[in-house]
Write a structure and sequence with these properties.
By secondary structure, the protein is an alpha/beta fold. The protein has a single domain (about 5-90, about 115-195), classed as Rossmann fold (3-Layer(aba) Sandwich). Helix content is about 35%, strand content about 20%. The chain has a six-stranded mixed beta sheet. The longest helix has 18 residues, at about 120-135. The protein starts with a strand and ends in a 6-residue tail after the last strand.
Length: about 200
């Protein structure tokens, strides 16, 4: 019989910088008031499902989201995973689009500004999720992380998945490992926002 491991990937709740359009990267911002409410809503949604473990990125906004979910589910946060912290934003961290254009011009995306590459994020995130699945085979695991690293990770684990839609705050994406291959049966779901 093939053992299936299910991982629910959750993007953290909103922060002030999300609202301002600032690149966060490794800057350790807390959730804002809306972010705390979003975390409570997804916690309520997940309380009606069967989850066994919860892990988080080691960054504050993800940890706060994970702790709210963990408290509602009656689970401890099983561990912090540096491998799924947000991708490093280099010189762009803390800037808005307008500030980037003012500082580096309209072609700022073509410049070398110290950003972590998609390939680096894909390898780092995929490795962290594969290690987690290997550590807890057959379990149902929640992982709270960040938008860019989650999309890069999904690109590595589920090649061909349409990643054109940016992940919304506290969206749930579910991936399943069975017979050595990953599939995604839910992407960027925020039905709980209307709770």
């Amino acid at each position: 019989m093939t053992m299936t491991t299910t991982i629910g990937l959750i993007r953290h709740g909103s922060t002030l910088w999300n609202k301002e359009g600032r690149i966060q990267g490794h800057t350790d911002n807390p959730l804002d008031e809306e972010g705390l409410q979003q975390a409570a809503k997804i916690a309520e949604r997940l309380s009606g499902e069967e989850w066994e473990l919860i892990y988080s990125s080691d960054m504050l906004r993800a940890r706060q989201t994970a702790e709210i979910i963990a408290a509602r589910l009656g689970l401890p946060v099983a561990g912090l995973l540096p491998g799924i912290r947000e991708m490093h934003g280099g010189l762009l961290e803390g800037t808005t689009e307008q500030e980037r254009v003012e500082r580096w011009g309209k072609e700022w995306r073509t410049l070398e500004l110290g950003l972590e590459t998609n390939e680096s994020g894909r390898l780092r995130g995929s490795r962290a999720i594969e290690e987690l699945a290997a550590r807890h085979p057959g379990r149902r695991i929640l992982v709270v992380s960040h938008g860019a690293i989650l999309r890069s990770t999904l690109g590595g684990l589920v090649p061909g998945l349409d990643l054109s839609r940016l992940l919304k705050n506290t969206s749930l994406t579910r991936i399943i490992k069975s017979g050595g291959a990953w599939t995604c049966d839910l992407y960027n779901c925020v039905e709980h926002h209307s709770i």
